[in-house]
């Protein structure tokens, strides 16, 4: 339905959002680890958790794209 | 020394990968529909299909593991999937979009299978379709041991055997440290207890929920890993089956709701310090949240694992899309890299599911602060 391939474009946009979000998490995590190396492992745990949560949301979008197209 | 071994290994792999270039090119055959192959691998099936080949007489031979088909249709009917898949007639149809499709009907049994759904055949021994291509025949209650159910049994058995062996080595009056598989399992259990349960539920109440958290963690992890093994008995996409993840998320939701104490319900229906007009909006949102959080758990696990499988299958399918084996030089290393990434995802998704479950349970049993 709609233009052919629009589902794929939708999925791509969802992934774009995820990429931006996780990129920012990674960057602030690295900044924080550089400032305070003793807290590195805690920061890393939090980073992995946030990344997985955001990836979950992005995959919602991909699943909808898959179902539609 | 490791450096030279590594280099030798890499060269060997590269040379092996170029070998198919010299092998004979493909014969005629229809164009392989990669999308259809991928979907077929992701979805559940009533028999475990390992491979097919065309033998010397140009007959397609299938190597597959037959699984029992159990139907409740008036009475209980049990038969092997071999009777349905290999002893029925293949009937070709054209879908409303104009594509060629087929289903297998076994009139002796009275059932036909179309896109892995079992239907009762009508009096002519056929399946009727309506204008959109949906079948009109009745479906019996299908309790078959499908590929995913078989994997469920297999991984449960594996887990049980593994952990029973680990438990046995602790029965020595606590005088010496455990031996064998327990040495591998113990750090993981301690990790789940300290970093997941104690951190989220609290020292006082975590013990009651440890069995569920440990089960969820190990079960999801071992099923994710089994899904990455390319050959029987691995390779079935159980954690990518939405009914499996639905059940797990349902368990989390039931545990959260049934162990919710007064505080928990107060936070949902009468959040302290919120003026009444805002409360009218907050209550529906909070109630939806009770359902939305486990829903997210379900979709997260399902989508992550299914996406991983689709990517790996697509990369392998590159070889078939282009028709020549030389593309293996590109596709195999990429698939290898993604498979390694999927190992990480397997563990990470199990960890995230367990951690979020612990977080929700912790929220349900939290004391007044």
TrEMBL record, chain A:
Q: Which CDD domains match?
A: ATP-synt_Fo_c
Offer one Pfam family short name for this entry.
ATP-synt_C
List residue numbers at the site (Reversibly protonated during proton transport): 55
Q: Where is the V-ATPase proteolipid subunit C-like domain?
A: 7-67
Whether Zinc counts among this entry's keywords is no
Q: Which UniProt keywords apply?
A: ATP synthesis, Cell membrane, CF(0), Hydrogen ion transport, Ion transport, Lipid-binding, Membrane, Transmembrane, Transmembrane helix, Transport
Which residue ranges traverse the bilayer?
6-26, 47-67
Name any one GO molecular function: proton-transporting ATP synthase activity, rotational mechanism
Its annotated compartments are:
Cell membrane; Membrane
What highest taxon heads this organism's lineage?
Bacteria
Mind naming one GO cellular-component term on file for this protein? proton-transporting two-sector ATPase complex, proton-transporting domain
Q: How does it sit in the membrane?
A: Multi-pass membrane protein
Q: What the protein does?
A: F(1)F(0) ATP synthase produces ATP from ADP in the presence of a proton or sodium gradient. F-type ATPases consist of two structural domains, F(1) containing the extramembraneous catalytic core and F(0) containing the membrane proton channel, linked together by a central stalk and a peripheral stalk. During catalysis, ATP synthesis in the catalytic domain of F(1) is coupled via a rotary mechanism of the central stalk subunits to proton translocation. Key component of the F(0) channel; it plays a direct role in translocation across the membrane. A homomeric c-ring of between 10-14 subunits forms the central stalk rotor element with the F(1) delta and epsilon subunits.
HAMAP family listed in its UniProt record: ATP_synth_c_bact
Question: Which family does the similarity line name?
Answer: Belongs to the ATPase C chain family.
Protein name (record): ATP synthase subunit c
* Organism listed in the record: Brumimicrobium glaciale
């Amino acid at each position: 339905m709609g233009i052919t391939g629009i589902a794929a474009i939708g999925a791509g946009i969802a992934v774009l959002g995820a990429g931006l979000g996780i990129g920012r998490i990674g960057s602030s995590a690295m900044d924080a680890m550089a400032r305070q190396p003793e807290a590195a492992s805690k920061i890393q745990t939090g980073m992995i958790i946030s990344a997985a949560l955001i990836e979950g949301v992005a995959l919602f979008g991909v699943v909808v794209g898959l179902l539609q197209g | 020394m490791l450096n030279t071994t590594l280099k030798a290994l890499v060269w060997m792999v590269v040379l092996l990968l170029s070998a198919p270039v010299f092998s004979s090119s493909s014969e005629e055959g229809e164009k392989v529909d990669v999308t259809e192959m991928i979907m077929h691998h992701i979805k559940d099936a009533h028999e475990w299909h390992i491979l097919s080949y065309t033998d010397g007489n140009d007959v397609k031979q299938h190597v597959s593991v037959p699984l029992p088909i159990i139907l409740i249709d008036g009475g209980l009917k049990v038969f092997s999937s071999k009777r349905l898949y290999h002893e029925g007639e293949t009937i070709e149809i054209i879908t409303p979009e104009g594509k060629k499709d087929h289903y297998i009907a076994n009139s002796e049994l009275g059932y036909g299978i179309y896109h892995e759904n079992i239907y009762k055949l009508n009096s002519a021994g056929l399946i009727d379709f309506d204008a959109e291509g949906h079948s009109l025949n009745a479906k019996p209650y299908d309790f078959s041991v499908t590929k995913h159910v078989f994997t469920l049994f297999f991984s449960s058995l594996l887990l049980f055997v593994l952990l029973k062996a680990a438990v046995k080595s602790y029965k020595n009056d606590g005088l010496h440290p455990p031996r064998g598989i327990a040495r591998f399992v113990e750090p993981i259990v301690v990790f789940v207890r300290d970093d997941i349960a104690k951190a989220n539920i609290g020292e006082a109440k975590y013990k009651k929920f440890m069995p569920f958290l440990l089960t969820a963690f190990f079960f999801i992890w071992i099923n994710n890993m089994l899904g990455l093994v390319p050959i029987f008995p691995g390779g079935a996409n159980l954690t990518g089956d939405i009914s499996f993840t639905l059940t797990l998320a349902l368990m989390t939701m039931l545990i959260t709701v049934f162990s919710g104490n007064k505080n928990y319900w107060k936070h949902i229906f009468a959040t302290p310090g919120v003026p009444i007009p805002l409360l009218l909006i907050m209550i529906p949102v909070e109630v939806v949240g009770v359902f939305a959080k486990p829903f997210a758990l379900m979709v997260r696990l399902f989508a992550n694992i299914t996406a991983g499988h689709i990517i790996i299958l697509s990369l392998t399918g590159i070889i078939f899309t282009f028709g020549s084996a030389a593309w293996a030089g590109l596709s195999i290393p990429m698939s290898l890299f993604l498979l390694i990434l999927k190992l990480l995802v397997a563990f990470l998704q199990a960890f995230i599911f367990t951690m979020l479950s612990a977080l929700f349970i912790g929220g349900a049993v939290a004391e007044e602060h």
